[in-house]
Amino acid sequence: MRIGADVGGTFTDVVVLDGRGNLSTQKVPSTPPHFEEAVIQAIGAWLGSTAISGARVREVAHGTTVATNAVLERRGARTALVTTKGFRDVLELRRIRVPVLYDWFFQKPRELVERYLRFEVDERILADGDVQAALRESELWDLKKKLEQEAVQSVAVCFLHAYAYPEHEMMVGRFLRKHLPHLTVSLSSEILPERNEYERTATVVVNAYVRPVMRGYLSALRRNLRRMEIEAPLLIMQSAGGLTPEEDAASRPVFILESGPAAGVLAAATTASKAGLPNLITFDMGGTTAKASMIEQGRLGYHSEYEVGASLSTGSRLMGGSGELIRAPSLDIAEVGAGGGSLAYLDRAGGLHVGPRSAGAVPGPACYRRGGREPTVTDANVVLGYVRPGPLADGQVHVDPAAARRAIQDRIAGPLGIGLLEAAEGIHRIANTRVMKALREVSTERGRDPREFVLMAFGGSGPIHAAGLAEDLSVQRVMVPALPGLFSALGLLYSDVERHGVRSCLLAIENLRPREIEQLREALEKEMLAWFRRGRYSVEPVQLAFSVDMRIRGQTSEINVPLPGGPLTPQDVDALCQSFEDEHERLYGHRSAAGHTVEVLAVRLVGKAVRDRTEGVLQPLELQGETAPSRTAYFGSRWGAIDTPVVTRASLREVTQGPLLIDEYDSTIVVPPATRVWLDDLQNVVMEGAGSHQ
Amino acid sequence: MSTRDPVNKTDPVTLAIMQHALASAADQMALSLYRTAYSTIVRDCLDFSTSLCDAQGKMVAQGITLPHHIASVPFAMRTLLKKYGQDIDPGDVFILNDPFDGGMHIPDIFVVRPIFWKDCRVGFAVSTAHHADLGGRLPGSAACDNTEIFQEGLRIPWLKLYRRGRPDETIFALLAANVRIPEMTLGDLRAQLAATHIGANSVVKLIERYGPETFQGCCQDLLDYTERLVRSEIASWPDGASSFTDFMDSDGVGGPPVRLQVTLTVSGDTLTADFSGTDPQVPGGINCTLSFTTSVVAVCLRAVIQADIPNTAGMFKPLRVIAPEGTVANASMPAASSMRGITGFRLSDTVRGALAGLLPDRVFAAGEGGNSLLIFGGKRPEGRPYVFYELVTGTWGGRPDRDGNDGLCNPSNVAGNIPVEQAESEYPLCIERYGLVRDSGGAGRFRGGLAIERKWRLLAGDSTLSIRSDRRDHRPYGLNGGSPGAPSLSERGGVDGVEILPTMISTSIEAGDSVYHRLAGGGGWGDPLTRDPTAVARDVKNDKVSAGRARQDYGVVLDGAGQVDPVATAKLRQEMISRFGRGSSA
Question: Per DSSP, what are the bridge partners of residue A345?
Answer without folding.
Answer: A353
